[in-house]
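Here is an idea for our session: we take a single protein and study its fold together. Which protein we use is up to you, so please pick one and set it down. Once you have written the record down, we can walk along the chain together:
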Amino acid sequence: GGCQPPVKLVNKECFLFAVQELFGYKTQGWRRALCIVGYVLSCGALLLLFYWKPEWDVWANCIHCSLEEADVVLLRTTDEFQRYTWKKVTWIDLSTLALPVGSNTQHPLVADTDSVINRAVMKPQLMVSHLCIQVQKIRYIWDFSVKEFKKVGSLEDSNTCHSIHHKFGAGLTREEQKIRQVVCGPNAIEVEIRPIWKLLFKEILNPFYVFQAFTLTLWLSQGYIEYSVAIIILTVISIGLTVYDLRQQSTKLHDLVEEHNKVQVTVCMKSDGCKETKSCYLVPGDMFLLDRKKLALPCDAVLIDGSCIVNEGMLTGESIPVTKTPLPLTESPMPWKIHNMEDYRRHVLFCGTEVIQTKPSGKGPVRAVVLQTGFNTAKGDLVRSILYPKPVNFKLYRDAFKFIIGLSVIGVFGLIYTVCVFVSHKKPAADVVAMALLLLTVAVPPAIPTALTTGTVYAQRRLKKKKIFCISPQRINICGQINLVCFDKTGTLTEDGLDLWGVIPSEGSRFQKVHKFPSSTPLPWGPLCGAMASCHSLVVLDKKIQGDPLDLKMFEGTHWVIDSHPLHTLTQITSHFPHLFQAPTEGIAILHQFPFSSALQRMSVVSQKIGEEQYDLYMKGAPETVSSFCRQDTVPANFLKELKTYTSQGFRVIALAHKVLNPGKDVDVSNLEREDAESELEFLGLLVMENRLKQETKPVLQQLAAARIRSVMVTGDNLQTAVMVARTTGMIHTGSKVILVEANEPEGSTPASIAWRLAEDCEANTEVHTNTEEKITLEEETCNYHFAMNGKSYQVIIKHFYSLLPKILVNATVFARMSPAQKSSLVEEFQKLDYYVGMCGDGANDCGALKMAHAGISLSEQEASVASPFTSQIPSIQCVPELISREGRAALVASFAVVKYLTLYGLIQFVGTALLFWQLQIFGNQQYLIQDAVITLLVCLTMSLTQAYPKLAPYRPPGQLISPPLLLSIILNVCFTIIMQTCGFLMVKKQPWYTMSHSSPGGNSTSSSTQSNVLSYEDTTLWPLSSINCIIVAFVFSKGKPFRKPIYTNYVFSVLLALQLAVCLFLFFTDIDAVYSGMQDIILQNKHLWLLIKAWFGYQPNSQYRKWQRMLQRDPNWPPVNTEDFAAKSTDEIYINPTYEHSDKD
């Protein structure tokens, strides 16, 4: 079938996984046979090549065809890596299942007519079967009606609320359950502990190690045994440690997931009633009962009857009990998720969370319908994000590879040179080949992979001492490049909980005197006290009150207590400490809750004073929301002004309201309509909570600012509070303007709009306090304005104003009310601007962003920390400068130093050996051994021990191996080596005592050593020269400041160098190191000199964000203030493809 456009396989819900393109292929017998012959003839080399390049494997074995006929599918990711993988297409055969009698071909397979299972069936002669592939643990089957692969293992999103109740409310039939079990697979999140041999193979078949094996084989055959063995031992240790680490991670993840696969649940069937089964047999659409008190949920399910309290700590990191309510039974034609808007999560029980308490309605036990099973669930997504992390695009490893290729090219020149010299002297072919390959391998040091890992291993050890744990060590190097850090606010910059600061009661539409907490006099009894005592979702579990910390603080302020009566699951009685003062009631019974939801920004309860007739409704929530439900005559006139006074000081303000319900009409409280109940309320007052800054916050942010690392706040809290905290912490300097960006979705005929307003508090703060810390302004980044926006605006900008996004991000500092998905998306957008992004959060809702960032640091000990590359046990942001800047930068500089050193050492040996080959001579094995093992190996292992410099430098270390300063330093050194060795080589010939020696390399003459008779004068001249050269280079490249402590603090290394130098000088008396090291350091490591050269050539950094900064500095109309713009075209056309398009006009 001709070449077709690839089909995209999208996993829409989860932004952590790359979109993949699919290509269909069909295996051909004769191609397969040819490949097998190729494997045999190439001794497995072809097989290895195919292992590295899976696409070549598919192209060699198969021919292109349509996806429908394919038996192999080639997948390609659409990110910048374009990685290929291939999957076999399997058949699911349903013909063995006893299908219901009388099921003719017209009869759907499962009752849910929308289900993909029906559309994916081939029905010739009732042979029912499915085409299926499994990608990253998720099963897809071929949908014949739309000709693409569709995900199975979840209920269709197109179901309405009514159809979920109707189709699945009574359970599935036995037959339908069987079909779904076969098609969807078991409901289990299985992470197999990877066998050690698999991990070993994967590690050993790395191209680095394959090249190393080739080099070592050659050296062993040349009788160069000692060093080869030393390298083999080191490599084995390095591979062993890596495999051990991977195995530990695999086991840890396996144990984390395993216990949820063995839960017992009660499933109800249509005709067979209810029975208990293992959770792995659950299928989407099953109806099960939540009859036990505690249950770890084995799948994602939607609640259809009764309500329950769930601990979602596993997914959010915050162990706050959440109340779940049943899915409403409405006739709306919209799909159920859209019908319930953002609140659909209130009806969903997520896999991996724990049901703490169930509250049945009158109709029997609490019931739920399975939505998703296995890896499609919320927990499955978390596990998959850990199993298949987004690959880190870091130049160091790619550059190291390019370096090795560059060295190999030099080696190949050496090989040609050797062949020419030896053939012209008519040497036997075997010698020619051996010597030529020897020179090739001298140029490429086999210790590079090992040396690169030592630096990170040492850094990991140092971080561990500072209580920072790391699960992917190669990320430590990336930390050295970070120039922007996103901080979560609550629990990261500020203390975890809120403290109750005071209450401002309102009577007769006037605010009264503030009642501060803690105070000696308790809050007097009244509707306000009643609201604080009963308007919350606290529960008593194991004799302890649990719930939202905010509710808890509010409740503790009243000094009441909660009794949960086991008889009435609905009633919680809040009774008083009688000794404080007499309250007119002995308690309040909570009869019904309308739970809090972030979309509605309010919660309310219906309660009844014990021994009284009337019902009370109390409401609490965001002040603007609550005041809109109140009778306007009860809301004080200065309400907004008062509110602003507190929010602008960084307080969190909550409003309370109350209404008496008439018990005549509203008899059944549980059937109350929320809309009717929540109206015409009386405004009671404001509750003011404060969120204190952690003490380390300010100094750390100042440190980062001084090091020119940008700080950005990304929080779920509201905008006013966030801006205030940003000002207090110094993220926004005194005297800087804050521009609030508000973007609105298109409504009716008005297109999407974006408005820029100056935050009012800017004018008040313009008298600048010049104190010393404020002086750390950044020369190039002096922007005296900052953008702030909330998640809703961010979403609209991405959708309708994408071309403005880079301009905004370059100066945006505060992002408030951001959802977890928006946090991840923000990190990704920053990365597109070439920022290296660090993210610091308390694990919870930051999981996705922590995974997405170049370096994610989780401050929580929750399981969510499994998802983040770094976890700090000390829950403060002090770890950010520690990790990023100090250890990260030191490790990066150390890796560079080691690579530079190894390159030069290879080239020094190469030059020496090449010169000797000219006379058909070679260094002795012991000579190589001293250079390789005694000098180089020890240098590589100890060079990285230098610790990080305590103060942060205001610039980053170079991030690319292949950059002018670095290459120049290597080229000048190589020139120096060539000149020095050639001079030595030629000068020795001029000496009166010189005689030509005629030992020929090859055969056994290589084993004669320095101790035997003089091999040749050239040899004994070049060897000490090159050895001392190696030592000098090691000294020069292990520069200390500004990223590492000075070299003399690394005692082991310094002593070693001194000893090595002494030994070499003893062997060969010379004194050229001082001159040399001076020359090197002045020219190459001189930052100021480089800056001068850059300015002289007019060089400008080419990172995207730098380009935008330069452009915006020249733009007189930026930033816009107090203006409003509209999206030009209709929404669907303007969804610009995510490469920045900017015309010259702007």
About this structure: Residues 904 and 973 are 8 Å apart (CA to CA). The chain has a mean pLDDT of 79.
